[in-house]
Amino acid sequence: MIVDLIVFIVILAFLILAHEYGHFSTARMCKMYVEEFAIGFPPKIFSKKRNGTNFSVGAIPIGGYVKIPGENGKEVLEEEIRLNPAKQIAQIPEEQYFYSKPAWQRIFVLMAGVFMNFIIGWIFLTAVFMAGIPQQAYVGTIAPDSPAAQAGLEAGDALMGYETAEAFIQSTDEHIGQNFTFSIQRGEEIKEITLVPREAPPQGEGPVGIQIQGAGIERQSFFSAIGKGLELSWEIFSMIFILIARLIASVVSGEDLFSRLAGPIGIFQVTSQAADLGLVYLGHLIALISLNLAALNIFPFPALDGGRILLVLIEKIKGSPVRAKTQLWFNGIGFAILILFIIAVSIQDISRIF
């Protein structure tokens, strides 16, 4: 458990570090002053100042931030300097503040974290395609009152000894009306199942009454893996972005998507299971988490990178900056909603365990 927790924290810290480094490096490239580069949220357990930037590590490893003076507008920064004139940012030339830079540079900096997470997802998926994952057939949906349902099969059971759906179907066809015994793996448990495939099953159910899903990735050459990794990365990124939009829309439509989500605790459990399966499976999970972070952060929601990009675009359309107080309220409310959302999903994760 402790080793799994350490692996989870290291993975999360790595992905957050990469995301924030994207902001940090592009901000420096655009000659913006970076006041703080933080991984995790307070209380701080480490802090060191270098080249004018305070690098810190917080005790709560579920996020991070890069603080650039002027992110919330000129008025807020001027008030901050007025209240604390001895602060270092008061000595920084105005042209190094966030708000003083052209819109394209601000958007470039805000998008850099998302870009880093997408690239990491692509790199890890490329590695997975190069290594390959053994083919395996799994139980999908189960028809009610079917031989599979009566035998106690469950969705997600791995059909041991069967790499493809076709191989399992062939075996069931050879045992119509006879006892058919095979093994399944459910979590860490291996069970033996005996059932009798039906001779005349209802239409669409098959002799056993299950839909079979195949999993696995055929090993690819280096250049083929790069192309397939990029294609799959974009598909996953797009799918997650659409699911986030559907989740927000479900508040009005009544569609239950929230119950299918996992928070930090749920992700920890999945990470633990993937680590037990091997490095390839763990690499695949890291890619999925990184692409999730990319899609979530680019979404135009308050407090996220996408929400901040939206404010810059509104400024360009209206021809003047959005009022500082409006920005503070916009991002503050968004951050509060995100924290409440994480708490709610974590409570759901805990309820699933018990």
Question: How would you explain this protein's 3D organization?
Answer:
Among the domains are: 115-129 and 221-354, no CATH class; 133-217, PDZ domain (Pdz3 Domain, Roll), CATH 2.30.42.10. The chain is elongated and about 85 Å long. The mean pLDDT is 87. The protein is an alpha+beta fold and 354 residues long. Helix 3 crosses helix 6 (222-253) and helix 7 (264-277) packs antiparallel against helix 8. Strands 4-5-6 form a three-stranded antiparallel beta sheet. Helices cover 54% and strands 18% of the residues. It is built from ten helices and seven strands.
Write out key terms for the chains shown.
about 350 residues; alpha+beta; Pdz3 Domain; 3-stranded antiparallel beta sheet; two-stranded antiparallel sheet; 10 helices; about 20% strand
